[in-house]
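Lecture notes, unit on protein representations.

Consider one protein chain, 342 amino acids long.
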Amino acid sequence: MNHSLKAWNTFGIDQSANEIVCAENEQQLLNAWQAAKALNHPVLILGEGSNVLFLDNFHGTVIVNRIKGIEITEKPDAWYLHVGAGENWHHLVQHTLQLGMPGLENLALIPGCVGSSPIQNIGAYGVELQRVCEYVDCIELATGKHLRVSAAECRFGYRDSIFKHEYQDRVAIVAVGLRLSKQWQPVLTYGDLTRLDPATVTPHQVFDSVCHMRTTKLPDPKINGNAGSFFKNPVVAAEIAQELLSQFPTAPHYPLVDGSVKLAAGWLIDQCQLKGMRIGGAAVHQQQALVLINAGNATSHDVVQLAHHVRHKVGEKFNVWLEPEVRFMGPQGEVNAVEIIA
């Protein structure tokens, strides 16, 4: 239990694992997984550890997926990309823009690896991965069999996919297929993007604006450990949203196609005057209340206590109960984050 995970999670939580293996190809990943399973040890496959909170030492093998490679096929309608799961997501966004292939600019500076993007159906500033995802390539861990999961089969939802359910411990994502349409349509529905002119805006201007918003509002994990947005934006029934808006008419809200309404978790937390609130080494970020940070040698217990406090303050004030977006890892693997902070 002497392999530190501190460098392998952006929260900078100091827990350990029995073993850490960096896999640069499918065979290395399979070998590491099957070796651990032969010993009945739990296994966790990580990208950049940008969306996990280690609650405890991990009593098994952590496999760091570093399968690289970007293949591009151009067709009359679109560019088709086949991207290794271990590629850095933001570098991919930059790379495609430099090659004159727009479509990912709203997703700039989202931390983590490409292979993690379909698990969460990552999204920001009005765009989710499902808008551009064609397929996800996996290997079935027990058999080594290749599996191509179409976008429809991924069952994408808000921060959700089949990879959090049936496929969670059965497969490893090795590549993601993306389609970037040549008929580029800017998405300018959030934040500073609403000030840009859709008639003249360029993909680079959207990219720069997104980067500016993220760097001014969000803490740098190298300075203050964090896992980005700690909580999901809650989606509530229309009646609950109406009730809330009758009391708080300025609350940001986004009606969804099914009639439900998405609320802004950061705004809800901010209204409870929780920015800067600290428990032990964990704190609510001063600029963006949606982010919990490691303000100085935070333990996982500090983060859990703070998340519990935030959840209850928001629940008492608004009768809306926040759920973590961050995945919680116990000694044997993922545990129910809502139960932990309830």
